[in-house]
Amino acid sequence: MTTSLPTFDSVLHGTALAALCLIGTSVAAADAPAKAAKPPATRVTKKPAPKPVETGPADASAEQIDAAERVYYGVYDCEFNQTVNIQKNTKYAAYVDLRSGKSTWIMKPVLSSTGAIRLEDIKGETLMVQIASKSMLLNVKTARRIVDDCVSPRQHELIEAAKAAKAGEAAAAPAAALMGAAPAPK
Question: Are strands 117-121 and 103-111 parallel, antiparallel or unpaired?
Fold first, then answer.
């Protein structure tokens, strides 16, 4: 029986291989505590910011209630075939909803010292001024008119009444002048 003795190269190769295996095992063992100490990766999800609590406008004062009763409600015809719609707000007493185009505002009625009704947006963006003959909607932030020359059904009635009264006065004026020019009775 012949046995062959391992050659120096094969022994050296086997020893080197064994050493590498030992080194690899010790490196893996050294890394094991570091890997074990690291917490598992978790996905962090941000919670959406809570929606702000919507608070309604302040309760209406007696003056505001009086002003709300004087508001001209309904659909207004405005320049350039635009419309404005003013209705009582169903959620907040003595407030009104104003719609123009695609925009809607909650407005607070205020009686001005001149007798005009001011509809002030509760967010401070818009203002509608109502006088007997017309109304206009303004953007107070940009100081520009949104729509002008708006007339509600009630304002149409007031305009027609004023025209009729003026026509009546004009017709009465010549008759009064004739009466004053007539000779005095003897």
Answer: antiparallel
Residue with tokens 């003595």: 94
* SS3 category, 78: coil
pLDDT digits (tens, 9 = 90+) for 116-130: 999 999 999 999 999
- As beta bridge partners, residue 85 has 75, 99
pTM exceeding the 0.85 threshold for the entire prediction: no
Band (184; pLDDT cuts 50, 70, 90): low
In which element (H, E) is residue 150 found?
strand 144-150
Tell me which H or E stretch contains 137: strand 135-139
Per-residue pLDDT reduced to its tens digit, 130-149: 998 899 999 999 999 999 99
What gap in Å lies between CA 127 and CA 50, rounded to an integer? 31
Closest among 106, 98, 135, 133 to 122, alpha carbons compared: 106
Could you tell me the two tokens for 67?
């002003």
| CATH class of segment(s) 62-156 | mainly beta
Query: Which of the 8 DSSP states describes residue 45?
Result: -
Expressed in angstroms, the distance from the first to the final Cα of the chain is: 179
Nearest to 146 by CA among 104, 180, 185: 104
The DSSP code for 62 is H
- Amino acid (one-letter) located at 62: A
Q: Which residue has the tokens 């729509």?
A: 147
* Residue 47 tokens, joined: 């919670």
